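Appendix B, record 7
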Amino acid sequence: MRNFFIIMLTLLSVGTFAQKISKYDSTLKIGKAGYRVTCMNRIPEHNVLSIKPIGFKNEAREVSLELKGRVLSAEIDDLNNDTYPDMLIYVLEASGKTTLFCVSSKENESLQPIFFPDITNDLQLSKGYRGQDEYKLVEGILFRKFPIFDADTAIKVPTKKVRQIMYRVIAGDRGMLNFKVFKNFDLNVD
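Structure tokens (predicted):
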């Protein structure tokens, strides 16, 4: 009987621990302004992402949207050099691919999206691409790295090369913000 209670207590503890690590709840700030990001991360196919501006003017409202994925992490920086905080949210889709959801502060009054291009729309950059992306944000520049595969789709092992792509945020048509590639190169890995 005692062993039964120990096993039940262990199972309850593991279940509670698993729930805690699945939820994403983080507050990111630069100075007094920033964002609180929450997502329950219950099932990969359907989650609600909430972004609450912090330190913004009263007009700024919380934004909630549906995701087909789970939030992995988020980073904050001034991506467009306007002195206001911008944020990247890394989302793991049900397919296993990592995508980005990005927002910019419009003078701490409202939020606007920053569009991140789909790599499959660029024939040169997507050559040998099969996912497994790694991202890093360094001083307003987004670095993306992934292994390069041979063109033959039957080969499941990547070559001994990785592609590094560097993005900056620029203003496009009608003031819309976009990530734009400004440098890319392939590196040999051992």
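Remarks on this record: Helices lie at 2-22. The longest strand covers residues 177-188.
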